[in-house]
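Something for you to look into today, if you have time. What I am after is a single protein written out in full by you. I want to see for myself how the chain folds. Could you add the entry underneath, on a fresh line?
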Amino acid sequence: QVQLVESGGGSVQSGGSLRLSCGASGFIFSWYDMKWVRQAPGKTIEWVSSINSDGRDTAHADSVKGRFTISRDNAKNTLYLEMNSLKSEDTAVYYCATGWTLVARAIDYAWGQGAPVTVSS
């Protein structure tokens, strides 16, 4: 069974840090580019960060560049998102998903169930 399971979400004050993890199972994780996307209340899904299959190439949205870092450990089948200097506008449900580009959820091979992140000022 193909599965992505996020963890590490929660509530934090503005300026704080969180690290999200995404455990993969049921498929060959190291074959896939991966990404993090997020959906804030009442807004459309927004691409956050991407990483290629071997972890050498990454990309981040301008809104998180310099504050968020995507990484992966293929030996542990795990994707990470280190989030620092969090702002209230980072409040959202964060999803990990296969693939580099955010096109449509139905196109991607797998999505996680989401990890809520709340940043209070």
Q: What stands out?
A: The chain is about 0% helix and 50% strand. Strands lie at 3-7, 10-13, 18-25, 34-39, 45-51, 58-60, 68-73, 78-83, 92-98, 115-120. The mean pLDDT is 96.
